Amino acid sequence: MYTVKDVERISDHCDNIVDLAEEMSDTSMEFSMDAKEGLQEMTELSVETIEGAIAARRSEKPEQCRESVQKVKDLEDEIDGLRKELRKSHMERIARNECSASKGIIFLDIISNMERVSDHARNIVEYISSKWPMMLLQRLNKKANISFYTPGIGWFQQMRKTI
User: What is the Rg, in whole angstroms, of the alpha carbon atoms belonging to the chain?
Assistant: First the structure.
């Protein structure tokens, strides 16, 4: 249930980004090449965090799950740094009168929404990593169409017995 809320919030942020893009299109507004390149980089990293969260959720091997979780955490940290960098560069463009206030507000809103997407992807993998052992047992149970979880025996010992 926790991950569903994060997925819903990701979709809300994506809707916000679409609304901002439509506003730009409606007013024939365009970002500078530097701003476009920064947004492109942030978009690619944000998409990678979502793909990583999906990979972590689908993984059936502990090492794959750990790798996906770590990748998302690293990417999310990188996005946090990129957001600060893009914000600083944007303020410098405003100071040089290379950007209008209206473009600036939209730019900052877009990078904020993208950063929040990565935050929610990180929330998902953190939840998955805390629940992964039980999720794996449930998946194995479903695939084998048997029930092999024995109350009172730790999940690791139970997995070793089963696998």
Answer: 21
Name the DSSP letter for residue 27: T
| Other residues' Cβ atoms within 10 Å of the Cβ of residue 45 | 18
Q: Are 110 and 74 in contact (CB under 8 A)?
A: no
Q: Is residue 160 very low, low, confident or very high in pLDDT (cuts 50, 70, 90)?
A: very low
The whole-angstrom separation of Cα 49 and Cα 119 is 9
Instruction: Return d(Cα 108, Cα 19) in angstroms, integer.
Output: 14
Per-residue pLDDT reduced to its tens digit, 10-29: 999 999 999 999 999 999 99
Strand residues in 17-162 grouped as ranges (E): none
- pTM to 2 decimals? 0.78
Altogether, the residues listed in the chain come to a count of: 163
